[in-house]
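tool_call: predict_structure(chain=1)
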Amino acid sequence: MKSYTIILVLLFSTGYFISDAYAYLDAGTGSIILQSLIGVLVGVAITLKIYWLKIKEKFSNISKKNET
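tool_result:
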């Protein structure tokens, strides 16, 4: 219990020592983030489609074997 308390205190106290970064995000950053999100969504959709077809094929083969 004591070690958890020490870890929590250290994690929450580090926020007080971090200063602001004053980082600049230019106009191209938004489009890069948008392109990345679209790419991830398309990749997930294609992966799901491929595996869905494989699962569907296996179940159709099982049902055909049971019919004979």
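agent: The two ends are 64 Å apart (CA to CA). Proceeding to next step.
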